[in-house]
Amino acid sequence: MSSEPLLTVSNLSVQFRTDEGLVTAVDDLSFSVAPGQTLGIVGESGSGKSVSTRALMRLLPNNAAIAPNSRILYTTKKGQQLDIAKLSEPSKALDEIRGGELSMIFQEPSAAFSPLYTIGNQMIEGIRIHRKVSARQARITAIEMLERVGITEPELRIDQYAFQLSGGMRQRAMIALALVMRPALLIADEPTTALDVTIQAQILDLLAELQRDFGMSIIFISHDLGVISQIADHVLVMYLGRAMETGAIRTIIRNPQHPYTQGLIKAIPRLDALDQPLLPIPGDIPSPLERPQGCVFHTRCPHAADHPHCETIIPNSTLTGDKHTAACHLLEEKVLERSL
Amino acid sequence: MASASIQTAQDIKRQKESYYTASQWQLFWTRFKSNRLAALGGAVLSLFIIIALFAEFIAPYSGQADTRNSDYTAGPPQLIRFCGEGGCQLQPFVYWPTSGYSVVEKRYIVEPIEEDGMPIRRPLQLFVKGIPYKLLGIIPSDRHLFGVDQGQVHLFGTDSSGLDLFSRVMFATRTSLTIGFLGIMISFVLSLLFGGIAGYVGGWVDSMIQAFTDLVRVIPPIPLYMALTAMFPRDWSNQQVYFAMTLVLGLVNWPTLARRIRSFLLASREEEYVLAAKLSGASGWRIVTRHLLPGFASYIIVELVINFPYRILDETALSIVGLGLRRPTMSWGVLLQEMTTVQAIQLTPWFFIPLIFFVVAVLSFTLLGDGLRDAADPYSGIRR
Amino acid sequence: MTAPLVSVRNLAVHYPVGGGFLKGKPKLVRAVDGVSFDILPGQILGLVGESGSGKTTVGRAILKAAPITHGDITLRIGDTVLDVGHLSSHDEKKMRRHAQMIFQDPYASLSPRMTVRDIIAEPLEALQLTSSRHETDQQVREVAEKCRLNLEHLRRFPHAFSGGQRQRIAIARALVSNPSFLIADEAVASLDVSIQASVLNLLKDLQQDMNLAFLFISHDLSVIAHFCDVVAVMYLGEIVEIAPTSQLFSNPAHPYTKALLSAIPSLDPDDRGDRTRLTGEIPSPISPPSGCRFHTRCPVAEPRCRDAKPSWRSPSDQHDVACHLVEGRSEHAIVHPVS
Known about the structure:
Chain A is an alpha/beta fold. Helices cover about 35% and strands about 25% of the residues of chain A.
C-alpha cells in the first residue's frame, strides 16, 4: 500500500509571453511526490524542469502564466488540502506555503542569500516569520541547524556573510536556511551542478542524511542522470516541457521504455564501459519557439518513422509497468497488443 | 485572417532565414522600430533638424533688427483665416493689424487696419520673395517658405521690439541644437581619448586617468559653468561667446562619458571572444576594429543621444541666468530669458512659445535615447 | 620513439591579485607550480582537476595567453622547435597557425557581430594564410563541411544557433588553419548530454582524420576516460598522477585520483554505498599547503606528507605518481612520453 501523496500536480502548463511570441515552457505535466520520498526530475536545457518546480512555489516571473486547468494539490502539515495553483498572490496562505511547507535550494547560493545581511540575520528572520519565538531562541535554532548541515564553528559562521564562505560551505548554509523551518518538501534545483565532484558527493550525502532524519520529501532537479540515480526514488524524465517517462529509479535506469530515456542513457559517458562508443541522440534540441507538432521528441527519435502518428498526435502516457509510465505511440501499441 | 494562414512554408522559412542572417544592427533596428514612443521622438527630432538646417528658408524674416516690424510690437500671434467680415475665400489670409501699448488700459491693444470700413486682408502665400540668404551657407536664394506680399505675418506674434517670434524660434532652434551638438562632440572626443586609453591600456595608466577624471567630476557643474562663462570678456562678439560656450559644455561634461567608455572597454576586453580572436592570431588593431568597435558604436550612439538634452538644458540654464548667450543671438535660452518677466505672463503669453519647443525637443531626445538604449540592450527594460 | 609535439617543462604561472595604485602589495597566486608533460603528435592528453587546480591556466600558458613565470614550453612544427616563452612575431604567427583553442562557453567565444563565415575565416584572415577571398571561402566551406555544419548557414549570425551548433562553429574556427595541436578547455562541459556525445564523437573523428594532438582539459573524469589516451590529474597547481587512460582508471595510485573516481555519481542506483569521501575543499592557491599539497584533505596522510614534497614514483610502466605512500621506482621528476 502507499500513503497519500504529499503533492499531486496534474495538467500543469506554463506559458511565457516573450517578444517572439507565446512560449510553452511546461505542457500538461502531471506527477506526484510521496511523503519522505525523493522525486528526481531529469532533463536537458529547455525541458521545463526548473520552470515546473518554480510554479509549485509560485515563483514565476511576471510574463509567465499557469494555465487555468492546472492543479497543484498539496497537503499541509496540518492535514489541510489546497490547490497552490489557485492561491492568490499575495496571500497569507502562499506566505505560509513558501518556507514553512515548501522550500527551495538553488544552483547558486547567491540566489538565496542577500549580500547585505549575515547568514544569521536571514535564518532568524525566516524562523520568526513562521514561528512565534524570541530572537534568542531563533538564534539557537539557527546555530543548531548550521551545525546539523556540517558547518564548522556555527557560532562564528552565523554572523558572517554568505560570500565569506567557500563554495561548499555556502551550499551547506543555503541548505540550512531552507530547512530551518522544517519544510515538508524541499525543492533542490541543480544544487550540485556548480560544485566540484568531491564537494558534490559531500552535498548529496548530506541531503540523503537530512532527509532520513527530518522525513521530508525532496524534488531533486538535475541534468545529470548519474546524480539523480544516486539520490532519487522515483524519476520524471522531461523533454521540451513534457513528461517523457516516469517510474522508480531502478526501472528507468535498467529498463527504460521511452526512446528519449534510452537515448539519454546511451549518450552518457560511463566509466564502466570505456570501450563502448558514445551514442548521441541525433539532431539538436529544438528552440522553444519551434516546438515540434505531435510528439515533441519525434524530430530526434530513431523510431519516429515507424509510426504514423508521431509527427501529428501527442502521445498519451501509457502505463508500462508498476508505476511506470511513458508517453510514446509505439508503447501505446505494444500495451494494446498485450491486453488484446 | 485567412490570408495569414495561407502563408506558405516557403515564406515562413524565408522570414526565419532573414532573422538568422540579421546582423546586430538589423536586430537593433527591428527592436527600435517596434518602440512607438521612441519612433515618435525620432520623427519630432527629424523635424527639429530640418528646422535647424533650413532655418533661413522656413523663417519668413531674419528675426533681427533689420526686419523689425515697428507697427506691431509685442503683437499676439496672428490667426490664419479663411473667413472674416465680408465673406470667406479659399486662399488663407491674415489681417494686417497694428499694435501699441495703451497707457490708459495698461495693455497692448491690437487693431486691424481698415480700408473702406473693411479690415485689410493679406493673403498668405508660399515661396514668397523676401530677404536674401544662402541656403546651407551655399545656395543663394531669396525665397521663403511662406509670407505675405506686403507687410509682415507673425504666426507666433512679435516680441516687445517688434521682431517676428516665429523666425526667432527657428533660428534659436538652430543655435541650441548646434551648440548641444558641438558641445557633445567635444566631450565625446575627450571622453573617447581618456576613456579609451584608460579602458584599453588598463594598469597604472588607467589609475592615473581615473584619478584625473574623478578630480574633474567632483567639481559641481553649475558653479563651474558660472565661473567659466563669467570669464568671457564682455566685449566678445556673439560668435566668440557661442564657440566658447560649446567649449565649456564640452570641457565640463566629458568625465561621465569617459568613465562609461572605460568600463565598457574593460568589460569587453575580457570577453572570451576577444581572447579567441587573439588566439586565432588577430592583431591588437584587428581586435579593436573587428571585434570591439562594432559593439562599441551602438553603445556610443546611445550614450550621445541620451546626453544630448542635458547639453541643451545646460545652455538654456546658463543663458536664462544671463551667463551664456545674449541678444541679439537667438537661442532657446535667450528667448526664454525674455519671457521671465511678470509682464510676459500677464500680457504677452505668446512669449512662452519657445518654451514649448524646448520641452518638446528635450522630451523627444529622452524618448529616442531610451528607445535606442532598449534596442541596444534588450535586457535593460524587460524587468517591469 | 617519436619526438614530442608539445613539451612542457617545470611550468609555473604565478600572478598577482589585488594591490595596485596606492592599494598595497598584491598577493601572489600560484596557479601553476612546476608542471611537466609531453604530448606526442596525434596524442590526446587529458588534464583533469577540480576548479582551482590550474588546468585552464596550463592550457592558456601553452598558447601564450597566460604569463609564464618560469619553465619552458616548446612546440615542434616540422623541423623547427618554437620556444613559446620567447617568440619572435614571425614565430608567433606560426605558432597561432599550428596551435588552436576551443573554449567552454560557445555563447561567449563567438563574436556576436560576425557571421559564421567571418568567424570561421578569422584565423585565415588574421594570419593572412590565404591569397584571395575566394580561397578563404573555399577553405571555410571545406572545414564547415567537416564539422557537419550546414553550408547555407554560413551567412547567419551566431544568435541563430544552439549551443551544440555553436560549439561546432568554434571547432571549425579552430581547425580552419589546419593546426596540428588543439587545446579543448572544457569544450563539452556546457553542452547537454545528448549533444555532448555528438560533439565528442565529432572531435574524435577529426582527430583521427587530421592526426591532431589534443590537450583536453576537463573536470569530468568520465568524458576524459572516453576521449583521452593519457590522463594527467592536477591538484592545486601540480600534476599528482599521470598515466595511460586504461591504467589510470583501472589502477589509480594517488589518493586524490582515487577520491575523484569514487566521487563520480554512478548511474547504478544500487551503487550508492560506501565510498572514500574527501572532507574539506581545495585550499587557496595563494598559500598552498606545505609538503604534499593534498595532505590537508588526504584520507591516508602521514606526518611526512606535511613536511616533504613527494618525489615521482612509477608503480608500473608509464605510470607516474607523486605520493609518499606509493611504492615503486623512485625517479627524478621527469615525465616520459607515453606512446
